[in-house]
Amino acid sequence: MAVPQKPTFNRPPGAGGPYRPGGNRPKGNFRGRLPQKEAEHRINHHIRVPQIRLVGDNVEAGVYATQEALKMAQQQELDLVEISPTADPPVCKIIDYNKFLYDKKKKEKEMKAKSKATEIKEIRFTPNTDDHDFDFKAKHAEGFLKDGNKVKAYVQFKGRAIQFQDRGQLLLLKFAERLAEFGTLENMPKLEGRRMLAMIAPKAAIKKK
């Protein structure tokens, strides 16, 4: 008498054991696609409104039935991309969507780099700063400006040295003149408490090498 065999379920051909969810799933193409991550824009058959407004360089602008616009995109081997979903009807373009995303990310990266917060570097002098110290600090300030940072130069007055304000102002103007190739003096030196300040901004044309 034959011993009854335990039944197996959903065993793929050639598999070594019963089918387990998430386990030895048969390989190959499936008729239905798995859910994809939500795209940044609706494209192609994900655009389900009956009509759209088509714009762009490679089409005649106007309102089209969505199916007609899809055929136009297919003929050009491009994508129909919804760029303004809140408009009535939604605005679409026929473009290469992957290239569109690449260019968009590149532009955002460039804008982020340009909007990087400017740092303010401080350079301190005294009314009696000698030429050697002046040159040393000017070279440091030159590097700060080349990197796109602002330089706040100030002369610190201690005790009775406050009477030498004219000397401090001349020193800061000389400092700004020394850096004129790399930065622009934003304001004339002014006294704040026991400090005389001058702000020097980097020139926009200077690029970091």
UniProtKB/TrEMBL annotation:
Classification via NCBIfam families: infC (TIGR00168)
GO molecular function, one term: translation initiation factor activity
Function description: IF-3 binds to the 30S ribosomal subunit and shifts the equilibrium between 70S ribosomes and their 50S and 30S subunits in favor of the free subunits, thus enhancing the availability of 30S subunits on which protein synthesis initiation begins.
Superkingdom of origin organism: Bacteria
Quaternary structure (record): Monomer.
Cell compartment(s), UniProt: Cytoplasm
InterPro entries: T_IF-3_C_sf, T_IF-3_N_sf, Translation_initiation_fac3_CS, Translation_initiation_fac_3, Translation_initiation_fac_3_C, Translation_initiation_fac_3_N
Keywords of the record: Cytoplasm, Initiation factor, Protein biosynthesis
Annotated region (Disordered), positions in chain: 1-32
Ranges of residues in domain Translation initiation factor 3 N-terminal: 43-111
Pfam families assigned: IF3_C (PF00707), IF3_N (PF05198)
Family according to the record: Belongs to the IF-3 family.
Gene: infC
Residues in Translation initiation factor 3 C-terminal domain copies: 118-203
Protein name: Translation initiation factor IF-3
